[in-house]
């Protein structure tokens, strides 16, 4: 039996012929133009700011708090908000910082905001703990570029300069929410038990930042700026990836604002945007190189990477919110639970506030800002 010519052959031929055309078009449509880099004037401004921060810390204007009882000043946590949209969760954070207008904790934190000034309409300070004077001089930021490293360093430098009592720097975004009370976060970071008096133990404290050296995308990310670009400053075996949002000790914050060597490489634009998350690479790489023992190796901010799309984690919507969800988000396999979480859509504010309000009304409901919650804890 003689088989007739397969009907696939003309189709295949046509496909093969059209390949160059498809290739031509895709290579002209993709890739998108390279993202802009930090401008020279911005970079010079930053250098001035970072030098000021380094100088403040080497010549403290008043004595650091160190000895028990020698001063009534207490160490503080600086909360650094990095945003390019309005701060949708400001009321929730306000509740976190001011449960019941409690005076007790007012002197235990500071808030700083870096808000992209080019975003239209301009992000208005929502007031309260997010008053105008908490907004630091900010510059334009772009996803997938070193501008996000620069913005984080600006926040750290501003917090170092502003208050010598800022001992931890917690970076969050406008999509982050707190999962515990401020008091719980504070006591956990400073290792204060209920009956213990606060004592700053200086070098003992660790930074909470994820540091990963085993990852299928590690090489792609290392070479995102081209081959042989990162050496000699950053060797592949020293390259790490990790969490975008972290809590650093003051000591590490200071090292970060003084850092120049790695920055020279990480500031370079990426050729492959899909492998380019400079801020998730710079901080873990630098800190794991200079002080691995000073890093806990995990972050306090929970992110759900299941089914992530285009480098974005899962975004929670109101229909997903429940006390159980928050309970699950807190659970970690590390020494400390997760204390913050992202990413939440802006319309989660109302249900989250309602959950927080339940606290006072219903003993059995989940206790939003108390760690000793009665609901399944
Ligand atoms: C809030 O204030 C009320 C009344 O002043 C008090 O009973 C309650 O314990 C306070 N709650 C917190 C979380 O401070
Ligand atoms: C993480 O996100 C996925 C969907 O992307 C969802 O099914 C899952 O329940 C989420 N996990 C938690 C702990 O919220
Ligand atoms: C939880 O804390 C509240 C207020 O701080 C307290 O009244 C209550 O007894 C505590 N519950 C437990 C189980 O420890």
TrEMBL record:
GO terms for molecular function: glycosyltransferase activity. Pfam families: Branch. It comes from the Eukaryota. The keyword Transmembrane applies. One of its GO terms (cellular component) is membrane. The chain crosses the membrane at residues 12-30. Keywords: Glycoprotein, Glycosyltransferase, Membrane, Transferase, Transmembrane, Transmembrane helix. InterPro entries: BC10-like, Glyco_trans_14. The keyword Transcription regulation does not apply. It is found in: Membrane. It is a single-pass type II membrane protein. PANTHER family: CORE-2/I-BRANCHING BETA-1,6-N-ACETYLGLUCOSAMINYLTRANSFERASE FAMILY PROTEIN-RELATED (PTHR31042), GLYCOSYL TRANSFERASE, FAMILY 14 (PTHR31042:SF117). This is Putative glycosyl transferase, family 14. It comes from Helianthus annuus (Common sunflower).
């Amino acid at each position: 039996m003689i088989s007739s010519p397969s009907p696939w052959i003309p189709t295949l031929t046509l496909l093969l012929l059209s390949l160059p055309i498809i290739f031509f078009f895709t290579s002209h449509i993709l890739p998108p133009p390279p993202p802009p880099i930090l401008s020279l004037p911005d970079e010079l401004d930053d250098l001035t700011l970072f030098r000021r921060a380094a100088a403040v810390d080497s010549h403290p204007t008043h004595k650091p708090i160190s000895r028990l009882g020698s001063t009534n000043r207490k160490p503080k946590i600086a909360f650094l908000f990095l945003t390019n949209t309005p701060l949708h969760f400001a009321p929730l954070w306000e509740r976190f910082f001011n449960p019941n207008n409690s005076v007790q904790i007012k002197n235990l934190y500071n808030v700083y905001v870096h808000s992209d000034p080019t975003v239209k309409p301009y992000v208005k300070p929502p007031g309260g703990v997010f008053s105008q004077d908490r907004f630091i001089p900010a510059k334009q930021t772009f996803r997938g570029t070193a501008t996000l490293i620069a913005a984080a360093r600006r926040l750290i430098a501003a917090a170092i300069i502003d208050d010598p009592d800022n001992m931890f720097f917690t970076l969050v975004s406008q999509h982050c929410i707190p999962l515990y009370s401020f008091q719980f976060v504070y006591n956990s970071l400073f290792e204060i038990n209920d009956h213990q008096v606060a004592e700053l133990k200086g070098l003992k404290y660790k930074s909470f930042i994820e540091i990963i050296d085993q990852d299928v995308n590690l090489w792609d990310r290392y070479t995102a700026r081209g081959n042989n670009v990162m050496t000699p400053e950053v060797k592949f075996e020293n390259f790490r990836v990790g969490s975008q949002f972290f809590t650093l000790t003051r000591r590490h914050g200071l090292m970060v604002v003084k850092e120049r060597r790695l920055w020279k490489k990480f500031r370079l634009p990426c050729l492959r945007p899909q492998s380019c998350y400079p801020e998730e690479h710079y901080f873990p790489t630098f800190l794991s190189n200079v002080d691995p023992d000073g890093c806990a190796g995990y972050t306090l901010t929970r992110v759900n990477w299941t089914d992530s799309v285009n480098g974005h984690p899962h975004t929670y919507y109101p229909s997903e919110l429940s006390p159980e969800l928050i309970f699950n988000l807190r659970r970690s396999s590390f020494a400390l639970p997760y204390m913050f979480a992202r990413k939440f859509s802006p319309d989660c504010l109302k249900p989250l506030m309602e959950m927080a309000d339940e606290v006072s009304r219903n003993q059995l409901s989940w206790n939003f800002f108390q760690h000793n919650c009665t609901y399944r804890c």
